[in-house]
């Protein structure tokens, strides 16, 4: 008889929708190749509505969004939902496509109830260290009981790129990671590849921010990218996997590209209007780099032996892989004892619904294999 | 009580020795973090000698090489050894660090007996398609029974770089891989990065081959690199994972860099002596590339929709990531529907005992998790 694995999806934005489409693909593939596994979507939940199949039957993925609009009910508190899921007649996987730290704070309890978690929720793994510690003390693939749930979060850094799995493998096989360096934000990548392209050119900083916003590369309020916190969260996660118990994304130096004078702006619109007044600051930085034959990029780095984590602008030679990055690509370099002077490099799109969902679906496949 | 997992290692050359050292690291880490798992090395075997602990106790890894020299006995046929291993009082993992296709042809039987296989043995997965098919029909992570062994072979392409796991994830999550392209040989990478470095220069071809041989970058007989077969084997493996049932590494166009006139050389030494007579052929290729502002590199590529696999020299713009490669690094680019115009790129050392063993140890960790 087929073994049921129950999938509960929370968050149905861009990533959530792309995940559902990949889940449908996976169900069909498993039906052909591994008929012993029966994946069932039993919960679809967004902020105001949810559909929960308390008879543990599969919700049709192709129509679930429409059904949710039409027949969704106001969702109960998460605690209540997880209590219901724990009573499923088989193993449950929670797919958290939100960025809700409140939900993340429930992961330890969720894992202890035998429910696995796969998620691109950065906040869950970059908030206070105590939450990180508590999550991995509760996970079957941490130091929790073997009957607890598994947790995977590949998409929290570099979306679907195999960044965390590669770092974990370096650490678990005994390599010494000495330095991690890269461009970890698609927004910052696009912005600086336009502001100072290899070979010269590029517009004024405020104009490039405006262009990036118009093309949909920034958050609705670009200050949420320019403050560097998104990159700091990713560095926090990488540093912790590399063995540094970083307390939070604000416990190391993070350079904000929001001019001091504009920190008090009451809205993103006001900020965007005034940003051009500070173009000369960024222009000086660009000229300094040009004079040295370099380009400026917004990067994060972790020096493991000295335990130094930092986020901000750095200058790179034209021949450096970080300088040659294109579009909104991420690049992550792992310098290790085994890899010597040439690092292990992973590069490609690090944002977007489809590639982020791919990391989540890849994690789900790992959990399914472990639960099989 | 701790669960024993029994490790049988065949092949104790550069990769085998590096693997043993990583296995010792892994045992110590597991003893601290997952005391429920007890890894035991029970067999160490090379061509002329073996040590087999038929009482299923752990062989001391630090002294196993010396013990093997001193107390090793002539090994019985593999069939007999696998019959003994199948009687272990727990799950067994065979670590095949050889490049023996005869041993590989026994994998299906080994897997059917519940023994898992982790290996960097390229020949096992690039020989006739029937063997590939038979291996995956026998594996628990193929279409074999859940009680059969698991098989992983990350190090057969790009050594420890996460090449196969990334391609599998793209395929399993429903992305459409359109093209795979890269430099898959550390030898060819080093040779062409010296023969025609970015920015000009470089020596004559025969002199660069001689230098590469002296520095230990080539096989003892450099013809084993220059014939392109090593790259063709890797392309065969990638193509099969991408869904193309390539029959063998000789069933698609492979450009050999051995001049026709030298195919009949009776020894590597004779070949090396005469190679310089053909420098003008390679010089013409280099000049043609230079005139177009390009460099020539030895690459493999797979066009998935048209099912075309090929291996040979290609010209690349200076701005192409393949042109910018350094030392003996590999680079592998996956062009897919989700990643769009900028591919997912993985780059770094693709040869060497430590990084190859890392891929094997990483695979062993996956098997341990699945057997747990």
TrEMBL record, chains A, B:
Residues 11-140 form the Aspartate/homoserine dehydrogenase NAD-binding domain. It catalyses: L-homoserine + NADP(+) = L-aspartate 4-semialdehyde + NADPH + H(+). One of its GO terms (molecular function) is homoserine dehydrogenase activity. It comes from the Eukaryota. This is Homoserine dehydrogenase. Its EC number is 1.1.1.3. Pathway: Amino-acid biosynthesis; L-methionine biosynthesis via de novo pathway; L-homoserine from L-aspartate: step 3/3; Amino-acid biosynthesis; L-threonine biosynthesis; L-threonine from L-aspartate: step 3/5. Residues 162-365 form the Homoserine dehydrogenase catalytic domain. Catalyzes the conversion of L-aspartate-beta-semialdehyde (L-Asa) to L-homoserine (L-Hse), the third step in the biosynthesis of amino acids that derive from aspartate (the aspartate family of amino acids), including methioinine and threonine, the latter of which is a precursor to isoleucine; production of homoserine leads to a branch-point in the pathway as it can either be O-phosphorylated for processing to threonine, or O-acylated for processing to methionine. InterPro entries: Asp/hSer_DH_NAD-bd (IPR005106), Bifunc_Aspkin/hSer_DH (IPR011147), HDH_cat (IPR001342), HDH_CS (IPR019811), HDH_short (IPR022697), NAD(P)-bd_dom_sf (IPR036291). Keywords: Amino-acid biosynthesis, Methionine biosynthesis, NADP, Oxidoreductase, Threonine biosynthesis. NADP(+) binds at residues 11-16. GO terms for biological process: homoserine biosynthetic process; methionine biosynthetic process; threonine biosynthetic process. NADPH binds at residues 98, 122. Belongs to the homoserine dehydrogenase family. L-homoserine binds at residue 219. Its cofactor is a metal cation. The active site is at residue 234.
């Amino acid at each position: 008889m087929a073994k049921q694995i129950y999938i509960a999806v929370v968050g149905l934005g861009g990533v959530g929708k792309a995940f559902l489409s990949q889940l449908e693909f996976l169900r069909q593939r498993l039906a052909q190749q591994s008929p012993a596994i029966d994946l069932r979507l039993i919960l679809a939940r967004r902020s105001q509505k949810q559909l929960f199949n308390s008879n543990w039957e599969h919700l049709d993925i192709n129509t679930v969004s429409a059904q949710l609009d039409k027949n969704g009910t106001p969702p109960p508190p998460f605690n209540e939902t997880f209590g219901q899921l724990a009573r499923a007649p088989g193993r449950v996987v929670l797919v958290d496509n939100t960025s809700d730290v409140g939900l993340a704070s429930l992961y330890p309890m969720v894992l202890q109830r035998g429910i696995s978690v796969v998620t691109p929720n950065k906040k869950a793994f970059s908030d206070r260290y105590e939450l990180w510690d508590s999550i991995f003390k509760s996970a079957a693939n941490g130091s929790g009981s073997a009957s607890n749930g598994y947790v995977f979060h590949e998409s929290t850094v570099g979306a679907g790129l195999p960044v965390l799995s590669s770092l974990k493998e370096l650490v678990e096989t005994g390599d010494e990671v000495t330095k991690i360096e890269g461009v970890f934000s698609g927004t910052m990548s696009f912005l600086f590849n336009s502001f100072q392209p290899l070979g010269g050119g590029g517009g004024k900083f405020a104009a490039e921010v405006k262009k990036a916003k118009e093309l949909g590369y920034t958050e609705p309020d670009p200050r949420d990218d320019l403050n560097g916190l998104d990159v700091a969260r990713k560095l926090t996660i990488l540093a912790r996997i590399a063995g540094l118990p970083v307390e939070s994304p604000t416990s190391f130096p993070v350079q904000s590209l929001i001019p001091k004078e504009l920190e008090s702006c009451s809205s993103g619109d006001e900020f965007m209007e005034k940003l051009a007044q500070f173009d000369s600051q960024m222009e000086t930085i660009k000229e300094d780099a040009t004079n040295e034959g370099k380009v400026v990029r917004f990067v994060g780095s972790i020096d493991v032996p000295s335990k130094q984590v930092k986020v901000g602008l750095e200058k790179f030679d034209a021949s450096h892989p970080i300088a040659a990055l294109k579009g909104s690509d991420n690049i992550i370099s792992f310098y290790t004892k085994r890899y010597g002077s040439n690092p292990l490099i992973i590069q490609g799109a690090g944002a977007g619904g489809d590639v982020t969902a791919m990391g989540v679906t890849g994690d789900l496949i790992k959990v399914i294999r472990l639960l099989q």
